[in-house]
Amino acid sequence: MEIGRAQRAAALLLFVFAAQCFLAVAHQPLNERDYQYARCGREMWEKPSPLSGYFTSCGNLHDGTFAYRAAGLPLTIERIVAGEPTGASAWESRHVLHSVHLLLHLPFIAFGLWLGGALWWVARRIYGNRGGFFALALYCFSPAMLRACLRPNNEILAAWGLFGLVYTAIGVAHAMQSPPRRWLPRIALLTLALGLTATAHIATAFVGLLLALGFMLYLAEYRRPVVMQVLLIACLGAFVILFASYAFNADAFSYMLEGAAARVWFSLAEAHRLFTSLPNAGATIAAATALIFYALHRRARYFGNTAPLLAALLLLPLQATGVRAQPWLWALPFVFVFTGGVFADLFESPQRRRFEWLALAILLVQAALCLVSLPLLTPA
Asked: Is the pLDDT of residue 246 over 80?
């Protein structure tokens, strides 16, 4: 595949995103919660819990296994490559493991970069270069997205999985207009996306499944009777992936099913706090401008813009009540895609020069606010 100017420019933006992450991580110490993720994640990969009746020494987890496994895997691999025993805890071996600080954070920064790359690919494919780059720039200078990559957590993984799930479902619906032999790779990818999303947050998987069903029924047209069969196959495969993430431990898996991980309610408090905070001022102005133009101009109300808007409107008011979760963070990639799409339309309007200057000003303000707030991003 030829790497053109657009790909190099996107790589540069993602490099800036990664540089901000590494700079913030370099100035934050590891805490007990970081080691807890690493220790219990390594137990999942290396050995069963030493505590009888529990999946790991963290107990029977109910907030998703993905972050634990992501945090523990690089440390386990490092021990294996170094030829050292894998039984010691992460806390006990913190002076033995090399670059433990980097290894512990690397998976979450990598998933943040992966999500940014996926966002750019989707937005550029739908809206063209300028819409794609505007969406990616908002993402790369989003303090909320940066903060999600700075500690082991399930939120960036859930956001990554949900975004992939929704747009893979849309891709499957489009593929269903072609011969069935072309469906299988995308259905397999849909199954994987749903399963990995469920291992991060089961509530995210349910929301993603609801969005996938709605978008697929809308797009599939004459293939609509097949949509439920495709989603049933994806759900069965996702169930196997979710069960495998608990090492096929029936007790630990049943604890997750019997818990409150899937419970959600509605509240605009977090969304209000996000969009009224000063570090997000540029993105807020961009999203508000896009929403106004979408409401006033019919030419902006097509599926490419409507789909991410509906996803964002569904996610922003959600509030997890059973486990610690941030559904508003899952919504942000869709907000950025929607904003990039509407601004791509503005760039084609008779007043395009004014909107190009507005977009540039918004990005400069957002980048400046993000860089100024970078020392404050490290969570306590």
From this structure: yes
Tokens encoding 361: 């000003």
Rounded to a whole number, what is the distance in angstroms from the first to the last CA of the chain?
Answer: 43
Place of tokens 């490099």: 15
Model confidence at 136: pLDDT above 90: yes
Name the burial class of residue 328, with classes exposed (0-12), middle (13-18) and buried (19+) by CB atoms within 10 angstroms of its CB.
Answer: buried
**Closest of 370, 356, 340 to residue 116, by C-alpha:** 340
| Rounded Cα gap, residues 28 and 147, in angstroms | 12
> In whole angstroms, what is the distance from residue 128 CA to residue 130 CA?
6
Q: What is the pTM of this model?
A: 0.93
Q: Are 310 and 188 in contact (CB under 8 A)?
A: no
Q: For residue 117, what pLDDT is reported? A: 97
Segment 147-160, tens digit of pLDDT? 999 999 999 999 99
Please report, as a single letter, which amino acid is at residue 304.
G
C-alpha torsion sign, points 355, 360, 364, 367: positive
* Number of other CB atoms surrounding residue 9 within 10 Å: 15
